[in-house]
Input
Amino acid sequence: MSTADILDTRDPRVVANPYDIYRELRASRDLVWSERLGLWLAPTHETANATLRTKSLGRIYEPQEPFDQWEIFNWLHSDSILDSEPPKHTRLRALVQKAFTPGRIAALEPNIIDICNGLLDKAQAKLQAQGSFDVLADFAEPLPVLVIADLLGVPREKANDLRRWSQDIVKMYEYGRTREQELAAQKSGFEFSSYIAELAALRKLEPKSDLITALVEVEEQGEKLNEHELIAMCVLLLNAGHEASVNGFGNGMVAMFRNSDQLDLMKSSARKNTVTALEEMMRFDSPLHMFERTATSETVIGKTTVQVGQKVVAMLGSANRDEEVFENPDTFDVTREHNPHIAFGAGIHFCIGAPLARLEMQNSLPMLFERFPNLQLAGEPVQRPTFVLRGWETIPAKN
Output
């Protein structure tokens, strides 16, 4: 067995703890070939960062076959910022950033606080009635969905549909997915795109102050988003924003519960440590562990030459534990100052929703500890059986 093939993304033991294997993969300080996955692994901070930033490594979307069954799902990806490269990516990002401005994001803060208070009220009522609540289901998971629904201009009563569509679609990023999961992704892609298309058509006739209206109206040097690009952007905002926020928060909270000294520190001074804590939550157990790129020309990463057509995976979860970059990388430290993690990516594909995810966590994290100053686990958390998108299914808590 080659070094890389100790990484079996379908092995429950590896899903539970991939970090010992990551340490072995980093030992060569270079790319490592995985026969099992048929691609190069970039496990160090240097190689993963280079994989994300090197222009000859493109994010090339490979259509699902048969095409007629996957038509909508295919253009949802090929027409999105995530799965396109310059010059198309440059045009899309310029248009989207003109609508999804720092000012628009900052203006969401009062709304985020209001949503947090409402969710915490319900969690407190559940705690009083049942003796515990779920940090994920009752707080971390609905928060970004409700925020993005309000941002886009989607009625809040559609939040459950948004969440289900997102969860179905992102399962397609996993290795070894089932046929049942593929069919669910097809169905959700159709339902989600149809709903956004209807809403966009309505906003053309009746503009509002929401992001969908801004995306409909935005123009840059005579360029506008076509219908597929607009819908793909809305779907990406939900999927990426929802998954990164939920899993970053959930993974960080489990790490905190398992490190009592850090939990006590947050209980005593959550506001003081929030900024460094949220970055450490994203670093220590990153929500996204693998991001694929494909060589469009012969490319050298580290000491390895990657041939045209070969894939390289930036291993974000491993890079963020690199012992040559982070002091005591396997220690969870909410006061960590030097923290150049790449959990949100790097280069032209740096997560466009990162400022929103940070704003949500900057508010939700201290508010959780202020409402529940004696927060502790009420049972063993249950982990999701997924590797690429790493997270938890339930995190029972009490006060």
